[in-house]
């Protein structure tokens, strides 16, 4: 019956020809899109397509130590009540808090840090001069300085004095950052040991105009050579991790310009299994999406991230040693992302 119907369509109706031509066009278009890197249904892919994929480029990394760590403490935070900060450092350091720092002043100070023959922002006084005093209130800059002892993780409260009458930082787009917290090394000898000389954290603090909860907007690490690295997190599920994350600083082996960085999870013990094979432990981070989700064997089998489907440009390896050599909270794992 079906054969008779097809023969009848072939002899008397042009729909048959239109259908065949359309089907051939769709199959050809899907194959071309698949070769160009676009997602197509699995049934339209050739059996040897996986073997023809180009290997994911490996980003070269160099390990270094970041002596600074800064987190928001528990409890409510606001302009009127202040903010609780929880610093942790490998060396004695100074915590300086700049309330209401002008956006343009901070950007100019960071640009000056990257220029040759300009003093590095390695001390609170140099940062204060680079900002040209364009902030509303500065906490713990003048003597006596608040020195955070090595390994100390106690909480520190910073706030704007009530007599200044500051309740908000203006409408959007704002011209001032609510809070800029800076960690610098307290001892001159330590500045000669560590390549990273300052950690700068911009924090949103809720006020009368904007009630969004307090959070870290972005973080920068400043080096003694004039480079600046933005810290960004890696994305990895906590399922299967045997212990909480720890971190340490990593930077590219070749640096023509400043690179961005993201925080990496500790891999000591048994980490999360690869989302593809479910057998080996995760030890590869995909860039630029920063998902840590695959192992060595599976990273070369995909052009797209298995989690977010973003195109994979590079990857780098998370080695077990990185999680085992940093018991101190001031040590951080950082990985560059383009």
UniProtKB/TrEMBL annotation:
Biological processes annotated in GO: negative regulation of cell growth; regulation of cell cycle
Compartment(s) of residence: Endoplasmic reticulum; Nucleus
Signal sequence region: none
Segments of this protein annotated with the region Disordered: 240-265
Keywords of the record: Cell cycle, Endoplasmic reticulum, Growth arrest, Membrane, Metal-binding, Nucleus, Transmembrane, Transmembrane helix, Zinc, Zinc-finger
Membrane spanning stretches: 15-38
RING-type domain location: 274-309
Molecular function via GO: zinc ion binding
UniProt-listed CDD domains: mRING-HC-C3HC5_CGRF1
Protein origin, superkingdom: Eukaryota
One GO CC term on file: endoplasmic reticulum
Biological function: Able to inhibit growth in several cell lines.
Protein name, UniProt field: Cell growth regulator with RING finger domain protein 1
Lineage: Eukaryota, Metazoa, Chordata, Craniata, Vertebrata
